[in-house]
Amino acid sequence: MLVTYKFQEGSESLSSHTGLGLAGELLERTELKDRLSNVELLGCKDPVIAHSDMVFSMIGLQCIGKPDYDAIEPFRKTPFFIQSLGIDRCPSSSALRQRLDLVGDAFDGIIKEESARLIRNTAPDIKGVSVSTSDGVMIPLDVDVSPFDNSKTNKEGVSRTYKGHDGFAPIFAYLGRDGYLVNLELREGKQHCQNGTVGFLSESIKYSKSITDEVILVRLDSGNDSLDNIGVCVDEDVEWIIKRNIRREKKADWLKIAKEVGQKSNPRKGKTVWRGEIYRNVAGFEKPLRIVFEVTERSIDKKGQFLIVPDIEVDTYWTSLKVGPGEGIWLYHEHGESEQFHSELKSDMDLERLPSGNFKTNALVLLLGMLSYNILRLCGQESLRDDNGNEEDNPSYRGKAGRRRIRTVIQDLIYIASHLTTTGRQWFLSFGKHCAWTKVWRSIYQRFKEPIPGGSPRMIPIRV
């Protein structure tokens, strides 16, 4: 029987975004508040609302998937939003817009360094996000460009991307298989992916080294096939695997090389695959560079159609690894997982269509999105730990997983309702009787409140 509901307005203080309490505790593990307060902005030397309040407000909006200035208005009189993020005064949408326009790139270095500090302090097991190879255990650093569709807008920097739409073409650097975001850079849509990548790659490696002492494996696709990138990897003493762009090299020549030195296999009738390696002397490098290749010749296509002229497919990779050709190619294919991380930023956090018409402001919003993304990623990975109460306390409808998608984190841990009460100078959050995530949420919150083991981590100063 359908129940008919009647309505009444209560006086209780309720929150539908209790997960912002987790974000606030993670922000407390950084030195953002103090460092941002010490920055003097031209035209804002004595701000009524602190820089940190502005930044934390935008991070809070991004953590709930609403990175828009006007989305701040409903939270201006919401006690929990202000308390959970440690904000003294919540800005209006116009104040938030104006302040971020003034910032420009003044906060960039601080945000990147504190984001790296947060990952090193809090990530459950940074070694657990490594890849095991016959050449040893390594932490992958995946660098890639992902166009943002901002069609039908007049925003500064919007131009035609290689995807065929108008927008931006930001570049991202993800560390580990969990996809912690260590660096990003907003770029105009028409900018070639290699333009500016040498400096970006060097900066990303240094931030990664400030997070982990493990061996780093840089992975780049063929758009970044440049000897300059290999030079950076050599100078920074990291491993690398970069897909080559064969450009004017003839496929027939590679087929000849494959038949001479490659290892042959026949996956099916009409398809022959050769895998192998060669070394080439390249100007500027003391030792010959290793190239791993996979050459495929098809005389029959996958539908059984015989081909008059055999189809030749060539994939080649620069690499410093000593692993076998098959393992090296597999390690590169794992690089494709970073496409999922792009998707989480663009769709789950709704960061694809950036809110400002000013390029530098959009770059700042995206940079804050990096910190918000890492906050949500850390919350999700903490929820997977085995010590979140008893096994029966964990929600049964969430199966075993190696990584929580950002959308899942927002739905399960951020959009969790609670009743906010105060008594005896203490504040209490009361969860519903049937809330499946209560014990997991409380366990994560208590861990985030614990002192940082060993104090602040070693941070490598970055100079670009």
Q: Which helices and strands occur, and which strands form pairs?
A:
Elements: E1 13-15, H1 20-28, H2 32-37, H3 51-63, H4 79-85, H5 93-103, H6 108-122, E2 131-133, E3 136-145, E4 148-149, E5 159-160, E6 166-168, E7 171-175, E8 180-185, H7 197-211, E9 215-220, H8 227-235, E10 239-243, H9 251-261, E11 263-268, E12 271-280, E13 289-300, E14 306-319, H10 325-333, H11 338-348, H12 359-382, H13 406-414, E15 418-423, E16 426-431, H14 438-449
Parallel strand pairs: 3-9, 9-10
Antiparallel strand pairs: 1-15, 2-3, 3-7, 4-6, 5-6, 7-8, 10-14, 11-12, 12-13, 13-14, 15-16
Explain what this protein looks like in three dimensions:
With 464 residues, this protein is α+β, with helices and mostly antiparallel strands. The longest helix is centred in the C-terminal third of the chain and has 24 residues. The chain is elongated, with a radius of gyration of 25 Å. The termini are far apart. The C terminus is likely disordered.
